[in-house]
Amino acid sequence: PKIAPHEQHRRPSTAPAGGPAARAAGDPQKHQKGSTAARRPLSSRSATGEQQKRATMASPRSPLSPRPPPSPGQDDTEAWRAKFVHFYQTNAPSKAKFVNDKMMAKWKGRYKELYSNLERKYGPLGAPTSPPRPPSRPGSGRAFGGRGKRTVADLSSEFEALVNKARRECPDNKAPLDLVDAKLTAAENGLETSTFTVCARIRPKLKQDEGDEDFVCVVPGEHGRAARCLVPRVSITGRPKLDEARSELDWTWGPNADEDNIFDAVGRPLVHRALDGQVGVIFAYGQTGSGKTHTMSNLMERVVGELFKSGAAANVMRHRKISFSYCEILGSDANDCLSPSHDAVKIGEMLDGRVVLKNLSEHEVEDAAQMHALVKKAAATRSTESTARNDTSSRSHGIGIVTVAPPEGCALAGKLYVIDLAGSERAADSKDHDQQRLEETKAINISLMALKECIRARTKASRPGAARSVHIPYRRAKLTQVMKDVFDVASPRLCATVVLACVAPTARDVDHSKNTLSYAAPLKVAVEAAPHLQRDDRDPALWATTQLIEWVAETAPCTMEQAKQIVNQNTGVQFCAVSESALFARCAAAELDAKQSKKLYGALWTAVIDAKTRNRRPDGTIITEEDEAREKAEKAQALRDKAALWKEREKTLRSDF
Predict the structure, then answer these.
(1) Fewer beta carbons below 10 Å: N end or C end of the chain?
(2) 150 pairs with which residues across the strands?
(3) Pairing assessment for the beta strands 322-330 and 393-394 based on DSSP bridges
């Protein structure tokens, strides 16, 4: 029978009295099957009660839950900011950093909508919910055990054993001393007036590299002519494997490289170029923290020692003026690092094509100590900032310019550019940058890409017949505009450039090291001749010694004996590579005056540049001056015929209408 609600508390209990046995007897069927409440131990029941109590306390309705700030008005930005911070700190503490000015400006006028979205994603305030994990695939756990995916850090010892097995070190890793000068001549294509030598240096493992993924996986190739990135990967079955990325270069130095060998191979030849009135450039490229500044500092120290070394060369240099300048470039802005007021430097071109750095101070130096002091001062005033990868990351391109005045009678001053490029960064390295750091990174990357495009275009322009059709965008960035002599096909002297890619050795930075080598390796573009290239008899680099003697005697003019003394048994390529000062010295020894020397040098380089810019057909044949005149006349006649045709058509139209 139904019992009224107000009489339910009076209904006597039907449960049997007594102990557990009596209760069991009162409902034998229930306890035969086993009630959950009856089987659960007392400790489990008490734990369940504690869980219910905690859930009640964490409920939004509980008086013990965190009290949110009062609901602000829709346009009260600061009040909503405090509310969002409070919500994140309560439900998702790791996300509180996202409450910033950019977020508040984006959601202005829609703060309530944003708050609702946060509650749906992270749960009500005080009752956070974690997003569900995707179901794991069979075999995705550690050795199919379901304990989570294995990472490179978990398998460090296995990867280290694989790398040691795969690496094949160069026996001594010492570069040949003719690394730069060997690229000067290519007999089939004539003289290479601007050469590019691409090298890499793998820095040693440092204390800051210790931690996860700290094993070495970037090593030199077998014979030092390549760099190998052994990229660690974990297969789908959880086994370690290495993916090799190989970059072919002119030379690669390992972690134990000798600083003196680096200078002897790529530094000393450039210093001698500057002393001979030519142009030498060396720059270091790579990830921030990869050892660029360290490498260039040691190189600059040895450059100073070479310029002011004792002996016979010092006696010659006493009559030559040496000056030093240093500027930093970031985007379109340049500053003088040796000026007390850090003056702005204006970079532009004169009407005759010369590049001028206005307001850049030049400091004449007389000994090594004075130049060391200037280098140290420039390094101290250069712009650096702390980033996620380096506490003193260079945020600008530092350019040290050594100018060697020409000997008496010569016109061209030698130039040596020692460039420490700003550290490159991936998107993962710059994700925590503020707006200023992001703008700096953008400017750095733009100038680095312009530098890459200029080097590749200049190398392509060295191919016969390509100089007039290849565009070299050196005006795209201030950095490349300063280096115009390197990229200008019509430059009246030899230029040699060394690209030094600096990389870190550990697995932690292997992706960035791979990107650095991928940037540098394509710069080593081989200059290939056309398959059926017609020989250019007007190119002095292809002349034999006897033909060269006859040309010198006719051009200077001078006697055959004087011409033989000037040529000094050189071939055409060797004679074209002689510097202005050395040629003037030969002419003086042969008793030619300064006017004859200037005329001879000017005629020689006019012939070299004409050969580089000579027009050729796609099949490699030369377009002569007669061919050019005939084609020009044919084009002019075609234009006249077209104009006459249109004139007749206009007469017809006027008569019809």
Answers:
(1) N
(2) none
(3) unpaired
